[in-house]
Design a protein that fits this description.
The complex is a heterodimer of chains A (891) and B (113). Chain A has 891 residues and is an alpha+beta fold. In chain A, 53% of the residues lie in helices and 15% in strands. Chain A contains 29 helices and 21 strands. In chain A, a hairpin with a 2-residue loop joins strand 2 and strand 3. Chain A is globular. The two termini of chain A are 57 Å apart. About 1% of the residues of chain A have low confidence. Chain B has 113 residues and is an alpha+beta fold. Chain B has one domain: Arc Repressor Mutant, subunit A. Helices cover 54% and strands 14% of the residues of chain B. Chain B is built from four helices and three strands; from the N terminus they run H-E-H-H-E-E-H. Chain B starts with 10 loop residues before the first helix and ends in a 7-residue tail after the last helix. The chains are: A alpha+beta (891), B alpha+beta (113). At the A-B interface, helix 1, helix 2 and helix 4 of A face helix 3 and strand 3 of B.
């Protein structure tokens, strides 16, 4: 087998040599025979003749020799490709239409698949990723990975099932550079992190045996390849260099390999520090049972130990821990989330991004698959039409014994060549498309970072799609075009009788295209309307002219009391900026992920405690005016609400209802579950404001004055402006810079940008699906136009005769148009039914409308019918303007 | 060439293998050798000689090498490979079995039935 391939390969790749040698060999044979004949007394001329006669036809023998080497297949393919290339060049319009259709279809598929691959399929570049698990908890669909250090220690003790247990916590750290302080995405990790996970290193070492409880003992850091490149320009002597992080000087001991970008797809932590440094600032961290932070725990299961054995051991430890009295409160509060340990495979990293984007990506993948089908149907149609034009050639080749399989192969070569050309153009479109999508993600506060360079899996996918498209959709026209009733085909160059099978295939294709088009466009319409509903939602605030930025002084040494002074000074200065109407500072702002929920002091069973909690925020006077949050009753805070005065609060209507029911909340007091002795007096009631995002209903909320709260190191400053708020961004930043040099100013944004960033998934879905819908509409219109044009040209003579017999032009036009509309109506009806059956998978992505929203579906059907009418009108008009005399004559 | 017999299908390959097993030969030499060892009794169709040689080379049963002919001309010489030797042995055995069987069948007299 191998030797045969080698012989074929050497003959195929060194073709000229093969041919030369073959010729030389045969010439030698003839010459030797001639010599022998002359020697035996034959005259030279006669000897030449006799030798040739004995040998036979050299060309035929050579051909047989080539076949012996398996070169015939290659020769035929090359011949077919040349022919296909000539056909493509001869009909540039056809070729361009087909290639553009396929390029858009294959390009869209490649682009979406690249994202699907990056988000859903990619395995972390680690040794034995399958042995790595997250130790999570909870029994619902949404297992939690929050933890604390004492729990980590319990798991770490399970050495009989785990080779190692590590934990990490994502954070933004302040790095002091020559240009000031910058915030860098970072990880706090346990001292064995890199060893347990098996992180590949480019330089130096990772953390293997750093002691966590040895506070300050390991003043070291590992940096990412990206940080090494961007900050150190890949200097080889980076190891040992100092970094000042959150005020601590650490020394770089390693650089991770470029392929490793952390355990959370979509993020890229640049600096990794041991937890022992964090404890320098948070002394209680290692023993705090009551702070559950987002700190995923990872374990490498011992080889020979099954996942279920490991889970059993972890579950015992977890239940034991949760039953202890320090932790029992959290179990009581959310029994669902803390009832049992869970083992989640970590081979593809943590699933936060997958969870958010799996469904949208699957929807997008389905849409692009439908688009490729519509595009391919167009190509089939075009090929059928061209097959019809070639029917005489085909008939002749069949008559002279050309062989049908040989012809089919010829047709398939053509369709494959088309789809390969389409794929090449499509690949360029896909690269452009994925980078456009990534730019979209770049507008978020924490941009989703994905490596979307084409890898082998993407290439394999595109190749597969290309071949399947080329073969499958080449086969239909190939079979149809070579199944001819020879006599009429030869007689007049094309079957012109009644409803030929080719024509019926064309109609069937148009029907299916329309049906698929309805689905694509309906999905797009539903998603676009959901986005519209979200954007026009009354969110309980007016954010049109509001600029917000975040001042982050965590870990910068700016002490709490000094912070308060900085905040006051900053507010005073911002207030004087030209164009500023109102300013305020607050811990949280609407539609921002940061927020704090506290349980209210209300009676009820412990498991419903989460329903009896309130979103809390502390704000300066003017917050409600700045954000346009309506004060329904009472008043805003003012400078009279001082630290030493009575504790006051503004609540929203939802909280008033939750806490006070039908009673009037004004001037009443309430308290929180954790501190029942501290009472707050309600001085005002404001409207409900969406806090986390627009989808979730507005929570019950408590606002307290900043003066009566601890000054948080994270504070948001908001400016209501007279004109475009974005224009004030640089002035606001400069003002903050002038007030404090050490705090980090980040995420300067208008409220509109922030709302848009919170809707990134919805906007991406709507933008992509609308683009796909437009594409589908164009492809359907082109397909319909093509088929109707073909129908008209095929029936030219018949129409001519009817007009000669007195049919009016209007009648002819209507007849052709009616045919288009009937075919379209059938397709649309099928599509509407299919949409009603399939859009139920969308419901989780929709907002404010049902997945069977009748108005949307009706609108889509109408739009398609109109498109069909327009696409069908032009061929119909051409039919109506046929000159009967010429049509009859030019047969 | 005197009285010659047509080749049975499939026997050409066997004869070529046999011919080149004695000593490396060029294509024309193979033709001469087969005539010689068959006592001029077999007529090789020249048109099928080269396709057969190419096929056998493709299958790795014979190997080709350019060399010099008796009268100092460049020629392609074929020799038997290890796989070819094995094949020749199998084919020879197979042929002998078949020939014996057919011969004994044809020699059967009415008494033996």
């Amino acid at each position: 087998m191998m030797s045969q391939f080698r012989s074929w390969w050497s003959a195929a790749t060194r073709r000229t040599r093969f041919e030369d040698e073959m010729r030389a060999e045969m010439e030698f044979h003839l010459q030797a025979r001639v010599d022998d004949l002359i020697a035996s007394g034959v005259a030279p001329a006669a000897a030449q003749r006799q030798a040739r006669m004995e040998f036979g036809t050299t060309d035929a023998i050579k051909d047989d020799c080539r076949q012996s080497r398996g070169l015939r297949f290659l020769d035929t393919t090359v011949e077919d490709l040349r022919f296909a290339w000539r056909m493509m060049r001869k009909t540039p319009g056809f070729t361009a239409a087909a290639i553009i259709s396929l390029a858009l279809g294959i390009g869209a598929n490649t682009a979406i698949f690249t994202l699907v691959d990056a988000v859903l399929f990619r395995t972390l570049p680690l040794p034995d990723p399958g042995g790595l698990y997250f130790l999570a908890h909870g029994n619902g669909d949404n297992p939690g990975t929050s933890s604390n250090y004492p729990l980590f220690e319990r798991y770490a003790a399970l050495t009989e099932v785990f080779d190692g247990v590590a934990a990490y916590n994502t954070n933004g750290l302040k790095v002091s550079t020559a240009d000031g302080i910058e915030s860098v995405d970072s990880l706090w990790v346990t001292g064995n992190f890199h060893a347990v996970v098996g992180v590949p290193m480019a330089l130096g070492r990772g953390f293997a045996a750093e002691r966590d409880r040895d506070a300050g003992g390991s003043m070291i850091a590992v940096i990412s390849d990206h940080y090494w490149a961007s900050r150190f320009n890949r200097a080889p002597d980076v190891l040992g260099q100092p970094l000042v992080v959150n005020g601590h000087t650490v020394s770089i001991v390693g650089v991770t390999a470029p392929e490793f970008t952390g355990l959370q797809p979509g993020t890229r932590p640049d600096i990794t520090l041991p937890l022992s440094i964090r404890v320098l600032d948070e002394k209680e961290f290692f023993d705090a049972h009551d702070t559950w932070t987002s700190m995923p725990i990872l374990a490498r299961v011992k080889s020979g130990v099954s996942a279920s054995q490991a889970l059993a051991a972890a579950d015992v430890a977890f239940r034991q821990y949760m039953s202890e009295k320090e932790n029992n409160w959290i179990l009581q509060r959310s029994p669902e989330a803390f009832s049992a340990a869970r083992l989640l495979p970590a081979a593809r990293g943590s699933n936060s991004l997958r969870q958010r984007y799996a469904m949208p990506l699957i929807v997008m993948m389905a849409m692009v698959a439908l688009i490729l089908l519509i595009a391919a149907a167009n190509v089939v149609n075009l090929m059928l039409v061209r097959g019809a034009a070639r029917s005489r050639e085909v008939a002749i080749r069949l008559c002279v014994g050309g062989g049908r399989s040989r012809l089919i192969r010829q047709f398939l070569t053509e369709s494959l060549l088309l789809s390969v050309c389409g794929a090449l153009v499509g690949f360029v479109i896909a690269m452009w498309g994925t980078s456009a999508i990534m730019a979209f993600f770049g507008t978020m506060e924490a941009p989703i970072r994905l490596d979307v360079t084409a890898n082998t899996r993407v290439l394999a996918f595109t190749t597969g799609v290309t071949l399947i498209t080329g073969l499958l959709f080449g086969l239909i026209p190939a079979m149809k075009s070579t199944r001819l009733d020879l006599t009429p085909a030869l007689k007049d160059g094309g079957g012109r009788t009644g409803a030929s099978p080719r024509w019926i295939t064309g109609q069937a294709l148009v029907v299916s295209q329309l049906a698929l088009g309805v689905i694509v466009i309906a999905v797009a319409a539903l998603l676009a309307r959901s986005l519209y509903n979200l954007k026009t939602l009354d969110a309980g605030f007016q954010g049109e002219r509001v600029l917000v930025f975040t001042l982050d002084s965590y870990g910068t040494g700016l002490e709490a009391e000094r912070r308060r002074a900085v905040y006051t000074e900053l507010l005073d200065r911002l207030r004087t900026l030209p164009g500023v109407i109102r300013v305020a500072a607050s811990r949280s702002v609407p539609i921002h992920t940061s927020g704090n929920a506290r349980a209210l002091n209300l009676p009820g069973p412990p498991e419903t405690m989460s329903q009896r909690s309130a979103f809390t925020n502390f704000v300066t006077p003017g917050y409600f005016d700045t954000f346009g949050i309506r004060i329904v009753r009472g008043r805003d805070f003012n400078d009279g609400d001082r630290k030493d005065g009575i504790r006051v609060a503004v609540i929203n209507q939802a909280l008033a209802k939750l806490y006070f029911g039908e009673r009037d909340a004004m001037d009443q007091t309430f308290s929180f579950w954790a501190e029942p002795e501290i009472t707050y007096t309600v001085i005002g009631i404001v409207e409900n404001t969406h806090q986390m995002n627009l989808r979730e209903p507005a929570p019950a909320a408590v606002y307290t004055p900043l003066a009566q709260s601890e000054a948080s190191p994270w504070m948001n400053f908001a400016l209501r402006t007279a004109q475009d708020p974005a224009a004030l961004a640089s002035a606001a930043t400069a003002t903050a810079r002038a007030v404090t040099k050490i705090a980090v100013i980040r995420y300067v944004r208008t409220m509109e940008q922030q709302v848009n960033a919170s809707l990134i998934r919805e906007r991406l879905l709507a933008a992509l699906s609308v683009a796909f819908a437009v594409l589908a509409l164009i492809l359907v219109a082109v397909g319909l136009y093509g088929v109707m044009s073909y129908t008209v040209s095929r029936r030219g003579r018949e129409i001519g005769i009817r007009m000669a017999l007195g049919a009016r032009r209007g009648n002819v036009l209507w007849q052709v148009l009616r045919q288009t509309l009937i075919v379209s109506a059938i397709g649309i009806a099928i599509g509407v039914m299919a949409s009603l059956l399939s859009t139920k998978y969308l419901s989780a992505l929709l907002f404010g409308l049902s997945e069977r929203d009748p108005a949307t579906i009706a609108g889509v059907a109408t739009a398609l019918l109109l498109t069909a009418a327009v696409a069908g009108f032009f061929p119909a008009r051409r039919a109506a303007t046929i000159d009967p005399v010429r049509a009859i004559k030019t047969e | 060439m005197g009285k010659s017999a047509d080749l049975l299908p499939g026997t050409l390959d066997m004869l070529i293998l046999k011919a080149v097993s004695l000593k490396p030969l060029h294509g024309y030499g193979v033709l001469l050798r087969i005539s010689q060892i068959s006592g001029n009794a077999l007529d090789i169709p020249q048109g099928s000689l080269y396709p057969a040689l190419y096929r056998l080379e493709h299958q790795g049963l014979i190997a080709a090498e350019w060399g010099e002919s008796e009268n100092k001309r460049k020629a392609k010489f074929y020799s038997l490979t290890a796989a070819g030797r094995r094949r020749l042995r199998e084919e020879t055995e197979g042929w002998n079995r078949l020939a014996t069987a057919i011969a004994s069948a044809l020699n059967t007299t009415p008494d033996e039935v």
